[in-house]
Amino acid sequence: MKKKILITGSTQGIGKALATAFVKEGYDVIVHGSSSMKKAESVREEIGAWKAVTADLSKIEEIRSLRQKTGDVDALILNASVQYKEPWDHISEETFDMQVTVNLKSTLLLIQDYAPAMKEQGWGRIVTVGSVNQYRNHPELPMYAATKCAVMSLVKNIAKQVASYGVTVNNIAPGAIATPRNAAIYEDDEKRKAVENSIPMGRFGQPEDCVGAVLLLCSDAGAYITGSDLVMDGGLRL
Questions:
Q1: Shortest CA distance to 78 belongs to which of 208, 235, 217, 183?
Q2: Catalytic residue among 144, 165, 186, 224
Q3: Which CATH class, in words, describes the domain spanning 4-179+207-232?
Q4: pLDDT by residue (tens digit) across 136-163?
Q5: Using alpha carbons only, what angle is made at residue 24 by residues 207 and 116, rounded to the nearest 5 degrees?
Q6: Catalytic residue at 144?
Q7: Which of 146, 126, 124 is nearest to 135 (CA)?
Q8: Are 130 and 148 in contact (CB under 8 A)?
Q9: pLDDT tens for residues 93-141?
Q10: pTM for the predicted model, two decimal places
Q11: Residue 93: enclosing H or E segment and its boundaries?
């Protein structure tokens, strides 16, 4: 029987690369977008995924409605997030609340919703998508980094408590990846070179660079990995 996987934020960037890879691996993939069903359905059709859904993860009622739309899943990849670039002394309540809700609160609520069925069947995979900013200071991303550090703390805590049920919980921490979020830097030669000069491997990562680790974590081969953080940043954190 095919395994079912939900990947949040999978209409572009890392999420889309992951969705594409899991389709090729034979999973029933559920593509998720924030609001545009047209966009989500277009990606579903493009990559041959099983289903497309939308849910705005900044709204609690929509977070809570997601499982009703998808049913239970064997694997859950929590990739969707929001990011506001602002120094610590300019963080507003609005951007604080948005990042905490989408990046942290939705992670907890969705794990609460999807993990019970995984525990009952004795097999499940949960992967959160963090950031290299868990490890390095960025003057414009203190709140974003804080939410990602908090998610990693949740991962370690929950992983210990569900391990005996055959459910693993892990995090990946991508570095500078060429996604729409980073387009303004990546597409500007001067800005891109400045970033690449700080990366030991000398280049931006591509969304596909995140695929192999997540495939491992969601497979039987990754059954003994839990509570871990796999960093894929070309050495940026070093």
A1: 217
A2: 144
A3: alpha beta
A4: 999 999 999 999 999 999 999 999 999 9
A5: 85
A6: yes
A7: 146
A8: yes
A9: 999 999 999 999 999 999 999 999 999 999 999 999 999 999 999 999 9
A10: 0.97
A11: helix 93-99
